[in-house]
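Reminder to self: tokens first, then the designed residues, so the page reads top to bottom the way the pipeline ran.
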């Protein structure tokens, strides 16, 4: 038995439905593919206008930076949010449709739920380990990307990002569960 068969046998028996399942490597590969546009989106927008991400930064940075301007709030609402919704929810749903069109997998609720939630977990884990940890290592608190936040402890606060990761993994259920139910009915 090879490694892939062993992992699928141990971790995915609950996805087996009438002999067809979404294996862990499909979910992993789709999740990692979605990490690419997600990373580009975060990196480009943070380098372009870091204050747009104030809502995702530790409280001490938010306090030192001051509130977002009206223009920053509008840009967050009209640019950041739609792009984020296209990338994570949009592409993860597209992944399910792609599998529906290209495979004979049974799209029962649990198959879709575990696939979508797996993708979201992969993206959130990538965000923590690659993006957030990268920024924690890369950003010099004495020369931060947001003026007025010099020497803020939040720039090196990996605990904040870990707590954000935990919140995101829990809050993902709010999206994934109803969408999985809807997709299981439609497909």
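Designed residues (187 positions):
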């Amino acid at each position: 038995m090879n490694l892939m068969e062993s992992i699928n046998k141990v971790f995915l028996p609950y996805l087996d439905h009438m002999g067809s399942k979404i294996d862990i490597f499909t979910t992993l590969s789709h999740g990692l593919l979605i990490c690419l546009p997600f990373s580009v989106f975060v990196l480009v927008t943070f380098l372009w206008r870091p204050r747009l991400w104030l809502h995702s930064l530790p409280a001490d940075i938010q306090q030192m930076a001051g509130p977002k301007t009206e223009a920053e709030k509008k840009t967050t609402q009209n640019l950041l949010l739609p792009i984020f919704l296209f990338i994570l929810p949009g592409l993860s749903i597209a992944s399910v449709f792609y599998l529906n069109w290209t495979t004979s997998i049974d799209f029962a609720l649990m198959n879709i739920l575990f696939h979508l939630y797996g993708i979201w977990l992969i993206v959130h884990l990538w965000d923590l380990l690659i993006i957030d940890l990268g920024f924690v290592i890369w950003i010099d608190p004495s020369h931060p990307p947001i003026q007025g936040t010099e020497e803020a402890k939040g720039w090196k606060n990996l605990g904040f990002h870990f707590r954000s990761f935990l919140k995101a993994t829990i809050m993902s259920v709010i999206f994934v569960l109803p969408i999985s139910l809807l997709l299981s009915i439609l497909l």
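The CA atoms of residues 50 and 146 lie 6 Å apart.
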